[in-house]
Amino acid sequence: MPQSSATPILQIAVPTPVQGYFDYLPAPDEANLPAIGARVRVPFGRRQMVGVVIGHSEASHVPSHRLRPIVATLDAEPLLDALLLNLLTWAADYYQHPLGEVMAAALPVALRQGKPAQVQGIEYCTLTEAGRRTDPASLPRAPRQTALLRLLQDRQEALTLEQLRTQQDTDPRQSLKALVDKGLVQIDARSCLTQVDTPPAPAPALNAAQQQAVEAIVASLDGFTGHLLEGVTGSGKTEVYLQVIRQVLASGRQCLVLVPEIALTPQLLDRFRARLDIPIAVLHSGLNDSERLCAWLCARSGEAGVVIGTRSAVFAPWARPGLIIVDEEHDPSLKQQDGFRYHARDLAVMRAHREQVPVVLGSATPALESLANVARGQYRHLSLPGRAGGASAPRLKLLDVRSQFMDEGLSVPLLDRIQQHLEDDGQVLLFLNRRGYAPALICHECGWVADCHRCDARMTWHAGIRRLRCHHCGHETGVPAQCPSCSRPLVGRGQGTERVEQALRRHFPAWPVVRIDRDSTRRKGALASALEGVRSGQHRILVGTQMLAKGHDFPNVTLAAILEADQGLFSADFRAVERLAQTIVQVAGRAGRGARPGEVLIQTHHPDHPLLLTLLRAGYGAFAQAALAERREAHLPPYAALALLRAEAADAEAPRVFLEGASQALTSKNPQGVQAWGPAPAPMERKAGRYRAHLLLQADQRRDLRKALAIWLPDLPRLPGARKVRWSVDVDPVDLQ
């Protein structure tokens, strides 16, 4: 029973793994109550934490003598407005995640730490006139200053402290101060927003389908409508975005654009900067804390007309809501896979509904969930069936590699076509979603295999750095000179992108090859440099992973090849076939985007597989309808709702014992319309030294699942085995691994 209080009660969301909020008293030395949506510093146990005020009350369930006052109010006005607070509160409830951690996820790191919500600007380092004239070698006994001055002279552009640190692999501040004192370098504070001084480029003429899509979206700008913009790769979806955004900006409102990965941000940003003469804020994990804070605050103030960002940008505040766009809406990267496991696409739709603005979901290969929402009448379907600019669709062909000689995953027919396209002055893209040199290092004599001692997985051989690396837990070790068991030579089995790159250099020594994957693009700026080399024609053969398949425009690529199409055909994950179809279409879309026709080759050991035949003969739409029919019959999403309870522990039995107790606790609640499957070991039972198991909940009606979770999850911490495991719940999981 709540007890009334003469002093107002502050309800504060504190970032701890505890559901709900905490009650506090106002600070005794502050005349005004902190606003709802403002940050406060509070005592929590023996430490102090930064929380967000979510409400005021006149009563509390906690006795008044146990209530503690806050330490200080950090914001004079709300950082998070009422609509965004309501969205975050809803998300915490829907995804069954602690409210304080959800609130923290919506804030930049600097604000979570209690730093002032003030735009500081980003410090850039530039050469003075003396710095441009000075020979770096003339600096006596100062190798770091010499290297720093040479770097600035070579780059001939302003660089941030973070960029200097990345380039030099050391903290440059001391050397930088010395160069400033010598009058060779100056430091200026600039805005984090990107804007070009040149007039915007003129808009190209739209084809009929593009014009129809623009008109439909513009007609809905005064309220909420969900639009699914389905367009074949190269159909001009970005041009539709741009022309709608110009209309939104003309009305004085802001736009939020979400992309699934950092790799897509620079390309989209370049397109937007060339066409929009307004400040653009960028939000992604590649920024340092100062850059992220600056962009976040500029979005909140309305100074940034457009905000482009990855998954977490869905929480970016704005002053004048106008439009939300989710590009590549099918991409699983939009779902957070740890901690607060939200789906940015679904939250974008919910936010648009609450803010009463339209949302556009764009993709060449829409998620089956989105297509089902079209069928239910929840989204409006806009179609761009042809490529923009008159480019023709690429020709797709299956290469049956059964009984074929394969050289490092490359068949003879594929090698012949690569040679022909190179001689015809085209570029070639090869896709293999496996990093490293070889996925296994084995001994042919005794059968020894380089396994990860922490996971049920093999170590991947990275020949370039002479290391074995587990792609699941990150464990690394050196490569044995010989078999540890019998001292015979070791050999790599299977192909990764590194090995394919080596084979391509051997087959085509006259043509430059570039590899684009997470290993080759670790350094800041490496990806942008590689992509620029592709667009300029410096690189003629591209080999890479998923990073290459997403959204990039390579107008000179005339041949795209998928080296292993069979990986997704026989997976235990019911979404694997959908992802394979999306990958094939996305990779195919990289070919023939310019004036020259494209060709797509798909190597497979199963050329008669129904998925591949449907996709090639009738297209993604026909595949999607067949897949939806299968999902409906199997009672799987989008015709059912799922929640996955994961448990892990160092002891092999502990996860199973906990999940069995959880299953029994669920049964005792007698939830209507909810079925539990398991517990069962995870597909990879041991990962990073911990054993993992799953319990899957399935319901035909989402409301039944939500009711069951609400009454069941609060009991789990009290189960006998709960303290022996780490457990989490994933609502609407996209990965059952």
Task: Supply database-style keywords.
single chain, 737 residues, alpha/beta, GIY-YIG endonuclease, Rossmann fold, 6 domains, seven-stranded parallel beta sheet, globular, PriA_3primeBD_sf, 3'-5' DNA helicase activity, ATP binding, DEAD/DEAH_box_helicase_dom
Summarize the structure.
By secondary structure, the chain is of the alpha/beta class. It has 22 helices and 32 strands. Helix 1 crosses helix 12 and helix 19 (610-618) packs across helix 20 (620-634).
Strand content: 15-25%
CATH class of the largest domain: Alpha Beta
Overall pLDDT confidence: 89
Per DSSP E runs of 2 or more residues, the count of β-strands stands at: 32
- CATH fold topology of the largest domain: Rossmann fold
Overall shape: globular
Total domain units: 6
Proportion of residues in helical segments = 25-40%
In angstroms, what is the radius of gyration? 28 Å
Gap from first CA to last CA: 44 Å
What is the CATH homology-level superfamily of the largest domain? P-loop containing nucleotide triphosphate hydrolases
Layout of strands and helices, then pairs:
Elements: E1 3-13, E2 22-24, E3 39-44, E4 47-60, E5 72-73, H1 82-94, H2 99-105, H3 109-112, E6 122-127, H4 129-133, H5 143-155, E7 159-160, H6 161-168, H7 173-181, E8 185-190, H8 208-218, E9 226-231, H9 237-250, E10 254-258, H10 265-275, E11 280-283, H11 289-301, E12 306-309, E13 321-327, H12 344-355, E14 359-363, H13 368-375, E15 380-384, E16 395-400, E17 406-407, E18 410-411, H14 412-423, E19 427-431, E20 440-442, E21 460-462, E22 467-469, E23 476-478, E24 491-493, H15 497-507, E25 513-516, H16 526-536, E26 541-544, H17 546-549, E27 557-562, H18 576-588, E28 599-604, H19 610-618, H20 620-634, E29 641-649, H21 654-669, E30 674-687, E31 690-699, H22 702-712, E32 726-731
Parallel strand pairs: 9-14, 9-15, 10-12, 10-13, 11-12, 13-14, 16-28, 19-26, 19-27, 25-26, 27-28
Antiparallel strand pairs: 1-2, 1-4, 3-4, 3-5, 6-7, 6-8, 17-18, 20-24, 21-22, 22-23, 29-31, 29-32, 30-31
